[in-house]
Write a structure and sequence with these properties.
By secondary structure, the protein is mostly helical. It has helices at residues 15-41, 46-62, 74-95, 113-127, 132-143, 148-155, 159-179.
Length: 184
């Protein structure tokens, strides 16, 4: 029988006292090192590591007849059990269907086409409330994709005028869309 896994020969005591002494000695001698090992196995997740240590301690307690917590060789047994527990948990998560909120999907979510139609309609309606100059600036800069300088050249105005009209047009659009409850 490997060292560290020898039956304990102690004076007969009540089971509760023996169980308490076993658990205390196990945690005192191996708890900190086992927890550090479990944190590494769990990728830094301390809460999962605590669960792994606790489950490892329960299994050690179940085998206290063959384990001697005073012997440092029992640490190898504890590490092996902790490693197997982490592997079992990982396999269990892989085997069950993915639950809502487990992890975000790598695929981008597809917006509802109906929302786009409603928003487009609301924007077009709000654009009718703008002045002709503001509407022109927004069409050139936002919809056609022209730069401020290109828009200024097309409209025959200064770039500063284009910026000013775009600013006030966007402000008016936001106010109109908020009033229509399209924007927050």
């Amino acid at each position: 029988m490997p060292q560290g896994l020898v039956p304990q020969r102690t004076a007969p005591r009540s089971d509760a006292v023996r169980d308490d002494a076993f658990s205390r000695m196990l945690y005192e001698r191996h708890g900190t090192v086992l927890f550090s090992f479990a944190v590494q196995l769990c990728g830094g997740d301390q809460h999962r590591a605590e669960d792994v240590v606790q489950e490892t301690a329960v299994r050690a307690w179940q085998h206290q007849g063959i384990l001697d917590p005073a012997n440092d060789r029992v640490r190898t047994w504890l590490f092996t059990v902790a490693h197997r527990i982490v592997i079992d948990h990982h396999r269990a998560r892989q085997a069950r269907p993915k639950e809502i909120g487990d992890e975000e999907s790598d695929e981008p979510s597809v917006p509802d086409p109906a929302d786009r139609v409603v928003t487009l309609r609301a924007v077009l309606e709000a654009m009718t409330e703008l002045t002709e100059q503001q509407r022109e600036v927004l069409i050139y800069t936002y919809y056609a994709g022209y730069s401020v300088d290109q828009t200024a050249a097309m409209l025959g105005v200064a770039p500063g005028t284009v910026k000013s009209r775009a600013h006030y047009a966007m402000r008016a659009l936001r106010a109109s869309l908020r009033a229509q409850a399209v924007m927050d």
